[in-house]
Amino acid sequence: MLGNMISNMMVKPGQSPLFDTPEAHGLAYENVVFKAEDGTTLRGWLINGGEDRVIVQTHFGVQCNRGGWTPKGHGPISPWKRDIQFLRQAKYLVEQGYSVLMYDMRGHGESDLGPIPWVSWGPEEAKDVLAAVDFVTERFPEASIGLLSICMGAASTTYAYGRENGLATRLNVKAMVAVQPLLYTCFMEALGMPKFMVRAGERVSEKRLGFDMSQPNFVKDAPKVTVPTLVVQNQNDPWTQMGMVEDYYKALTVEKELKLLDIEKSRFAAYDYVGSHPQDLLGWFDKYMR
Fold first, then answer.
1. CATH number assigned to the domain with residue range 2-288, chosen from the 4 options 3.40.50.1820, 3.40.30.10, 2.60.120.1440, 3.40.50.720
2. Which DSSP string corresponds to the chain?
3. Domain ranges within the chain, ordered by starting residue
């Protein structure tokens, strides 16, 4: 019973329905559908801002979707008190001449479940990042692609670089902004959950996923990233270990920058910062995608 409860918190899909739309932000778009290599159907918005430069935005996990995150439905004790609308940064990018693909990873929003019907924190979702890049490439064969990858999205993107025939072979990808990459093990330790509870949840999750969640480590794939990467991290984030973020940054062998934010003591503050201060972060794409 306890193990199921802990595992559900970490890997149960479908915990956040869509709550925002491009129309609400005055954005021209189309609904799109494409498939990952294992046949999983993914759904998203392709927001029109031009055909030369396209940003693929990959959201964070479990309680998120392509539109962002909302406190609605999460009870009175919520880690953040207002909506985090990812369409704010999409609007900014469109105004700078980019198109933006915002899609739901498997098990999130309106996308289907994968063959493993649980959230894997990146190893399975890496297939979705590849599918999104390939979809954009097919639609805009001459476009440069940038990756805006948030939390589990950053993990998934890095795993996608580590895969055989992975992102390293997609030469039209030119830059990445990785917002608060997070290992499952570091998150669990930062939460301060008693070890017996962690072990109980991990036993259930291993049966569901088919692997021990403490084993995959995207930091080991960071040296395989081939594009200039901006790593963004709130240094006051209580749900991570700064040493892990520094290890990830050090492991990158490309042109890189680590931007540490000194903002509210909440992990969600950095997710909100991307949309409220897009000019501070997203100029990275301008630098490498001209």
1. 3.40.50.1820
2. -HHHHHHHHHH-S--------GGGGT--EEEEEEE-TTS-EEEEEEE-S-SSEEEEEE--SSS-BTTEE--TTS-SS-S-SS-EETHHHHHHHHHTT-EEEEEPPTTSTTSPP-SS-S--SSTTTHHHHHHHHHHHHHH-TT-EEEEEEETHHHHHHHHHHHSTT-GGG-TTEEEEEEES---HHHHHHHHT--HHHHHHHHHHHHHHHSS-TTS--GGGGGGG--S-EEEEEETT-TTS-HHHHHHHHHH--SSEEEEEE---SSHHHHHHHHHHSHHHHTHHHHHH--
3. 2-288
- Per-residue tens of pLDDT for the chain, all 290 residues: 889 999 999 999 988 889 999 999 999 999 999 999 999 999 999 999 999 999 999 999 999 999 999 998 766 667 898 999 999 999 999 999 999 999 999 999 999 999 999 999 999 999 999 999 999 999 999 999 999 999 999 999 999 999 999 999 999 999 999 999 999 999 999 888 889 999 999 999 999 999 999 999 999 999 999 999 999 999 999 999 999 999 999 999 999 999 999 999 999 999 999 999 999 999 999 999 97
The number of residues making up the chain comes to 290
Let me know: does 149 contact 178? Beta carbons within 8 Å: yes
| Encoded amino acid at 68, one letter | G
